[in-house]
Amino acid sequence: MVFPSPPDLASALQLDLGVFLAFILLAALLSRDSLFGRLIFGGTTAAIILVYLAWRYSDTLPPFEWSAAALWPRVFFSFETCAIAYTLLSIAILLRWRDRSAEADRQQQRLQAKGHWPSVDVFICTYNEPLEVIEKSIVLALAIDYPHFTVWVLDDTRRDWLKAYCARLGARYLTRADNKGAKAGNLNNGLRYTANETNAPLILVLDADFAPSRNILRRTVGLFADPRAAIVQTPQFFYNADPIQHNLAAAHAWVDDQRIFFDVFQPAKDAWGCAFCVGTSFVVRRDCLDLIGGFPDGAICEDLNLSYQLMTRGFETHWLNEQLSIGLSAEGLPEYITQRTRWCLGTLQVALLRNGPLRGRGYSLMQRLHFIHGVMNWLCKPFVVLMLIAPSLYWFFGMPAFYADYLTFLRYGLPALFALWIYSGWISGVRTLPLFMEVTHTLPAPAISYTLLSAVVRPFGRPFKVTDKGGDRTISRVRVKMAMTFGFVALLSASCIMWSVISPYAPSEFPPSDFFNLIWAGVSMVLSFAAFLVCFERPRSTERFFIDEIVAIAYGTDIRGRCRMIELSTETAALETPAQLKLGDSLYLYVADVGLLPARVVEQEGQKTIIGFSASEEQRRQLLIRLFSTAAGPVASRANFKQALLALLRRSLAA
């Protein structure tokens, strides 16, 4: 089949504009809360992508021969096809969704009326986190509003100071002699020990850097009225910007890259009965754990493995899409990359297990398809790397990734991109942005590609890598190896553009194929340069939460005035600048539920005055409860393309 080419540029652009406007209209008219809207929008998007795929297969591959020039386009097309298949399967999965909040309301009212709440053991898993990280989890766990629960701190690094801290606050402390089985082994140790102590029928699992909301148990335990529910999982939210958001100074305008997974994909998977555990902020039935021999430790992703092992027994993971905890996102770029390579390797390990969803028995076809969808998410990442280097291979070695000119790409490729971008923004509730989502995929792509390659040789036997949290983040750092990688690709792409213009062999007029690859080199340069900027890590300070309240300022015991507090952290507060405050002034700040805090004016930022204060141990606990239970964090929940783009431009100029 031969696809017709547009006669001229005007015709191609006219078609692109029509597709763009049509999809903007669909986004405006259709509701993502209706099956009809998802079916029409998703089906239309899938149809345009399939037309693109057919064009790619039919018209853009050279005749086959055993040469690099013929094999390279096919390697590229193979990974591109994987990415397209992942996209199409995503569209199919997103046809359904489930919101369990109304069900949680009913079950909470039922338990409240009966006055019978099942007891809960709260497990806080910790490995070497400093006090300023783990204290939030312990303090907030002890402050949970629930009648019958016990907090257990499961320490896998055997720290005496943490044992003493737990005793002082009233939490139970538990450790073990070794670290066998990593996190799963730590949890199983807690499971065995508490079976002879509290033996609660339900267990809330928290990572050491996650602080639960006070109502987390009242919202979740009622959902176990459904006998199929073995796990009730809640989404992860973060009170700090991840390294990409922070280093590009775009946390106010750009959501973290996991929001679409937690807020969009998991409710959809729940509707299909295929949601899965994500490792923290979930409640699990003890009897279900006993049925499968405890938390499985056959893969480093014990959470994913847990959900799938329970599926074989007829149980499900139910997703309650409410913010019931808040945690610390990876603060540094190496930690961010380590997280994702661990998730990638863990998913592959689960795939290779004899009792896993690909090789084991007891799984439905739908459960296997959903797992394959998760595997494909990681298998797509090498395609990002290939896209970045493809223009350079064309310009320096004369090897195009696919044989097309810019007019035919405008006819078949750009409509598919428009459709995908607009559909993604619509279905995600503005949690994705063109360009910026590509940057988040670009940064971990080389490391994940290496992980995939090494997993072919050695998928098991590697140590569990815990994501480092806390520590001194107040100085700038350059991630040299990553900066060199992305800087080299950006420079190579820029060299391609310059060479095409100033080389002695440069044509007076670009052929269509050259022009297409010239634009492609520009896209590669932009993405690589944005990734390069992220490698220059900006200093961090303690995150201040957004507050809007009137506070009292006192000198000694006399209240001298009131002003509006707009931000608050465990160490500082930001006030709308009162006229009477000057840099270096000593004072007392009265904060509701906390009390009088001895303070000092440490900085003045335009219309804001920054107050540093000292809190007693009890006041600090009250601050933690207040901030991590109710205050709004500084990270955007919806994306804003204009503001994100301005932040990127400012960061580029600052570099």
Overview of this structure, please?
The chain is of the alpha+beta class and 655 residues long. The chain has helices at residues 9-29, 35-59, 68-93, 101-114, 131-142, 160-169, 182-195, 216-220, 243-247, 259-271, 286-291, 302-311, 333-352, 365-379, 381-397, 406-427, 436-442, 445-457, 480-502, 512-534, 617-630, 641-654; strands at 120-126, 149-155, 172-175, 202-207, 210-212, 229-233, 282-285, 316-319, 325-327, 477-478, 536-537, 545-555, 558-568, 572-576, 586-591, 595-605, 608-613. The strands form four sheets. Strands 3-2-1-4-7-6-8 form a seven-stranded mixed sheet, with helices on both faces. A six-stranded antiparallel β-barrel has the order 12-13-14-17-16-15. α1 runs parallel beside α16 (406-427).
* Alpha-carbon distance between the two ends: 49 Å
**Order of strands in the sheet with most strands:** 3-2-1-4-7-6-8
Arithmetic mean pLDDT: 91
What structural class do you assign from the helix and strand content? alpha+beta
Tell me the radius of gyration. Answer: 27 Å
Contiguous low-pLDDT stretches (5 residues minimum) are none
